[in-house]
User: Fold this.
Amino acid sequence: MKYYSINRKSPLVDFKEATIKGLAPDRGLYFPETIPQIDVALIKNIEKYTNDEIAFEVIKPFVGNCIPKSKLFEIVNETLNFPIPLLPVTENTFSLELFHGNTLAFKDIGARFMSRCLGYFVKGIDKKLTVLVATSGDTGAAVADGFYDIDGVDVVILYPSGKVSMVQEKQLTTLGKNIHTLEVNGTFDDCQKMVKQAFADDELNKKLFLTSANSINVARWLPQQFFYFFAFKQWLDKVHPPVISVPSGNFGNICAGLLAKKSGLPVDHFIAACNANDVVPKFMHAAVYQPQPAVATISNAMDVGDPSNFIRVLELFDNHFPNLKNVLSAYRINDEQTKESIQKLYEEYNYLSDPHGAVGYVALQQYLDHYPGKQGIFLETAHPVKFYDVVEPLLKIKLPVPDVVREIMNQAKQATMIEPAYGALKTFVLGL
Ligand SMILES: *Cc1c(COP(=O)(O)O)cnc(C)c1O
Assistant:
């Protein structure tokens, strides 16, 4: 499998190079040259396959010869270290829970897969690999956990001091070993700017092999297809495939779902469930894409004003708007509706949801109101305890603390405080 740059001004690369580079030299996102078709026997007999076997079959054509089959199977097996159950919630909706991993959000899958691929690739490179990430919380936690103790890879995480939750801070700062955390006395934008400066610094790039682990990397994007296959495996009415609603921010996860459908997975329809950051709902209405500054909401992992993966969605449909519209609908759900549905799901259906999953639920319900014969799945992308400050006062309950959280809360924070100046980052990275 080869990958081309969506800007079409860079050479084709294989999976290894696309993963190491992240972004093409012309600043375009990498995209697979062909969409592989999944074996019809796998779809027909999907219940007979283990999750590891399904994931291996799905990802194999995308990786090509870059990783030997036995090693790839091992990577898939290590990636899928937690259950992904599909649970009935209301009369016509189900929840696919993606939050049972170490950092309690779906990003664990992409981060674990990517880190193990890089760990394999780095063996053939003579320099040590340094992964730089700026985070507002969730991404850094998944990346830190995913890359922990991977040989030959150093990770440097930058987060804005005082602007992540207590749980997130512990997830970012308690690992140690090859995970180095910088607490930046500034904002998330400062962190992101410093990371960008590092990638543009010739001197630094000569000395070190720098790469990024953000969500546009193919090795984080592609394994997210697994969710949709696991959902279908557990879906009982195989004759009538589900409508799937995906809480969306940067549109990496839903784009992986659309890719799975293109490769032959039965899905009735996709719903992009957005909060007040409604660039895509507006686009799906008027076919005009207009980025806007991000606005803060209670589903903050989706506060994105210019979703970086949406261009891949367009590419998947050859920029043909009517074809896209047949498969995808998008909804804008506000904070009030989100809160109401967290309450309703708990009080009427005894289901605990987080703000992101709740956005997915409302959008799905709005769609199903128009199509009463259909049934659907909303993705629960984070554990409610990650957003206890929203959920607990609404439901007037204390959420049980999962073991993985209790463990890290007792561990000591290890972070280096720096000023929001590029020089401080450079000195730190060179001193590793
Ligand atoms: C990152 C994130 C999202 C958005 O996913 P995208 O792939 O960026 O669209 C949704 N929910 C949670 C909890 C997240 O962490």
Notes: Residues 185 and 419 are 5 Å apart (CA to CA). The chain has a mean pLDDT of 95. The first strand starts at residue 3 and ends at 5. Residues 83-103+221-397 form a domain with the Rossmann fold fold (CATH 3.40.50.1100).
